[in-house]
Design a protein that fits this description.
- The complex is a heterodimer of chains A (about 110) and B (about 120).
- Chain A contains no helices and 11 strands.
- The N and C termini of chain A lie far apart (about 35 Å).
- Chain B has about 120 residues and is mainly beta.
- Helix content of chain B is about 0%, strand content about 50%.
- The chains are: A mainly beta (about 110), B mainly beta (about 120).
- At the A-B interface, strand 4, strand 5 and strand 10 of A face strand 6, strand 10 and strand 11 of B.
Chain lengths: ~110, ~120
């Protein structure tokens, strides 16, 4: 069992470019959560998805950020027109059910230059 | 709304001494409580959780935590610290109810533990 796989591990983008972060949940897990960790802070909830459905996106910034979890393939967190303030570590977690135990991935560290 | 407080940004302890990392929480209902550890440039590793039952929870790598409902605390402890325990530790809470708090983990800001040889 490979666990929760996130790629890339590190991503550098220039201001104004798009960032795509991928998350493959653990086998058998159909619930995916994205969290953001800003420097010197704890993790903050962004979005909760099930296959083809966004359940709760209350933690997502209103503009430039979107997430999807298609029927086939990984969950994608997309950030359009990145700004320096988007620099952070983005973690994905998965669970077999909505209130089940989480397993976190190793994260994607986004640096905007 | 739920919240977690980790009052110490950093804890220093000598190798072999007992360690405590403090955590207090606030939820509207009954909590699930978690401790995670993060090593530099790594993801979060699960240490232990409180669901129900015995207030003293034992977890990975010799860590344990005590749930205290009256003080709304869930302090992490280890009887004898190792240099390899040096890392960033996060406390997290989830509500047992049916709303958004039931699946969202709310994290504290983290406590950096340094174990001095």
């Amino acid at each position: 069992n490979a666990g929760v796989m996130q790629n890339p591990r590190h991503l550098v983008r220039r201001r104004g470019q798009e960032a795509r972060l991928r998350c493959s949940p653990m086998k058998g897990h159909s619930h995916v959560y994205w969290y953001r960790q800003l420097p010197e802070e704890g993790l903050k909830f962004m979005v909760y998805l099930q296959k083809e459905n966004i359940i709760d996106e209350s933690g997502m910034p209103k503009e430039r950020f979107s997430a999807e979890f298609p029927k086939e393939g990984p969950s994608i967190l997309r950030i359009q027109q990145v700004v320096r303030g988007d620099s952070a570590a983005y973690f994905c977690a998965s669970s077999p059910e909505g209130r089940g135990g989480y397993t976190f991935g190793s994260g994607t560290r986004l640096t905007v230059v | 709304a739920q919240s977690v407080a980790q009052p110490e940004d950093q804890v220093n302890v000598a190798e072999g001494n007992p360690l405590t990392v403090k955590c207090t929480y606030s939820v509207s209902g009954n909590p699930y409580l978690f401790w995670y550890v993060q090593y530099p440039n790594r993801g979060l590793q699960f240490l232990l959780k409180y669901i129900t039952g015995d207030n003293l929870v034992k977890g990975s790598y010799g860590f344990e935590a005590e749930f205290n409902k009256s003080q709304t605390s869930f302090h992490l402890k280890k009887p004898s610290a190792l240099v390899s325990d040096s890392a960033l530790y996060f406390c997290a809470v989830r509500d047992r109810g049916s709303g958004a708090g039931s699946y969202q983990l709310t994290f504290g800001k983290g406590t950096k533990l340094s174990v001095i040889p």
